Write a sequence for this structure.
């Protein structure tokens, strides 16, 4: 990419966000931006780069759309188009182009794209398309759907925004906490989509993680680091720090214990750890902060044996409080077993054993089997391994479980 | 006594309406409205936008949950309705949270179709 392309690309999200507000429509904003970009490519190399590329793109795009609208209005004598033109006379419009409010527009864009009245799929697609600036093909590829399917999702989401009049606003104070939660959930879904291992090298996956982290930074900066926003950002950084170590040459996930910790990205770990501390010191813990703290404790251990499992067990207990779920209890049981011995872990597993969701969950039986074996109860361990084997659909796990069962014979 | 007549219809039936079907339905609505207006019985008629435009609002323990899509539980039944004229969906959601039943049931927010020539059902 040459310098012009880099500058243009960096300017797109903010320019797009303000154009959506000025033109009141996602598709028109996109058309305006495309036209402005085409003009930039033609004129910048000759006339030099403008001081404020974002403002240049907004002004050029808006003027182009005013021409288009005026043209259509003349052609069709369409009364409503004049209302849009009249809107452009807003004396504050130039302020909005010049200064800080552009950042507000980027936030408006995030909150509109993450509006809970949209489907989760629609929220993700629209956020990646408009805030992150990914193409429909790129988004489709990263979610393993065809570009036409992705295009349909985007069209549906935009139609709902129009039909329902979902506002282009940062939510009012009363609604802000819930809406910020919704935006964080979208960001984390994008991150997890990128984090999921897929077969074969696909550069789209790391890109999704990178975009999610970037979104997290936008939200953290805009709201002066609310603890859960900082917590989510820290969580993503700490998980992302293991990106290289957690996938092997075949594209399979490497369990935490088996990862080469030299491959962990120290820079991301240091930033993540300092963000966790910063957020927890605010005294308003939440589930993202606690998950980040768990990741931070793992990151501290230079080898698996050094892991502070007692601390992790306490953190899982706190996490259960904010996000009660038997899967979290299962994780806590493993941490308890590592710090207090297998018997304590098995006892904790008994509290969730009766749940149908756990009976059908292969990880539950696998974890229980491993603890029973440590407790020298091989017959029960074998039954539990067999149960896990009957439930798993993953070939690698199947092979691993079969080996363990064979060793018990 | 005011009576609300609630219209139920599978959406794919509407989607597959031909222009002739639409005109027949429209004529039927118009005839009914004309007749009821003449005898002073007509109060209000609205066409809702498709269910894809629906948003469901619930309040539990003081926390508002907003989800995409129509209300689909079958145990709860329709017990009433409000029509508000709002600038944005967020305003409508804010009112929805203030309806007492949002705490025990759910409020489905559906935009009403608007026609420039008249307000009322078109198909």
């Amino acid at each position: 990419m040459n310098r012009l392309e880099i500058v243009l690309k960096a300017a797109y999200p903010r320019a797009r966000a303000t154009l959506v507000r000025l033109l009141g429509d996602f598709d028109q904003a996109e058309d305006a931006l495309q036209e402005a970009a085409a003009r930039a490519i033609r004129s910048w190399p000759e006339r030099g780069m403008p001081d404020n590329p974002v403002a240049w793109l907004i002004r050029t795009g808006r003027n182009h759309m005013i021409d288009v609208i005026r043209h259509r209005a003349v052609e069709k004598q369409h009364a409503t188009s004049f209302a849009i033109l009249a809107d452009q006379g807003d004396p504050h419009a130039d302020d909005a182009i010049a200064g800080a409010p552009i950042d507000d527009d980027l936030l408006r864009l995030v909150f509109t794209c993450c509006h809970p009245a949209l489907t989760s799929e629609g929220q993700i697609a629209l956020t990646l398309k408009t805030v992150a600036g990914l193409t429909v093909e790129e988004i489709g590829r990263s979610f393993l759907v065809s570009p036409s399917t992705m295009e349909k999702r985007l069209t549906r989401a935009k139609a709902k925004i129009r039909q329902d009049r979902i506002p282009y606003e940062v939510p009012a104070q009363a609604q802000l906490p819930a809406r910020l939660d919704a935006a964080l959930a979208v960001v984390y879904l994008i991150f997890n989509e990128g984090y999921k291992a897929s077969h074969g090298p696909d550069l789209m996956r790391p890109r999704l993680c990178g975009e999610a982290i970037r979104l997290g930074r936008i939200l953290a900066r805009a709201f002066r680091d609310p603890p859960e926003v900082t917590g989510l950002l820290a969580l993503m950084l700490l998980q992302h720090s293991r990106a290289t170590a957690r996938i092997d040459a075949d594209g399979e996930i490497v369990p935490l214990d088996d990862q080469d910790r030299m491959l962990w990205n120290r820079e991301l770990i240091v930033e993540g750890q300092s963000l966790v501390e910063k957020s927890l010191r605010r005294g308003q813990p939440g589930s993202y902060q606690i998950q980040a703290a768990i990741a931070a404790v793992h990151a501290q251990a230079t080898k698996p044996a050094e892991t502070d499992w007692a601390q992790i067990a306490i953190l899982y207990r706190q996490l259960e409080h904010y996000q009660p779920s038997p899967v979290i209890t299962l994780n806590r049981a493993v941490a308890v077993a590592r710090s207090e011995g297998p018997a304590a872990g098995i006892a904790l597993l008994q509290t969730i054993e009766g749940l149908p969701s756990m009976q059908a969950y292969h990880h539950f039986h696998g974890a229980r089997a491993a603890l029973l074996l440590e407790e020298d109860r091989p017959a029960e361990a074998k039954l539990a391994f067999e149960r896990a084997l009957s439930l798993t659909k993953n070939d690698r796990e199947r092979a691993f479980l079969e080996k363990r069962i064979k060793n018990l014979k | 006594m005011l009576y609300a007549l609630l219209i139920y219809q599978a959406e794919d039936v509407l989607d597959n309406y031909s222009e002739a079907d639409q005109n027949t339905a429209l004529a039927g609505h118009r005839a009914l409205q004309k007749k009821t207006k003449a005898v002073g019985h007509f109060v209000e008629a609205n066409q809702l936008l498709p269910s894809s435009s629906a948003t469901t609002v619930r309040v539990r323990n003081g926390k508002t949950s907003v989800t995409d899509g129509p209300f689909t539980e079958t145990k709860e039944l329709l017990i009433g309705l409000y029509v508000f004229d709002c600038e944005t969906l967020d305003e409508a959601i804010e009112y929805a949270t203030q309806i007492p039943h949002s705490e025990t049931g759910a409020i489905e927010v559906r935009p009403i179709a608007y026609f420039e020539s008249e307000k009322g059902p078109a198909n």
User: Anything to note?
Assistant: The radius of gyration of chain B is 16 Å. The interface with chain A takes residues 49, 52-53, 55, 63-69, 86-90, 93-94, 109, 111 of chain B (CB under 8 Å). The beta strands of chain B are 55-60, 63-68, 107-109.
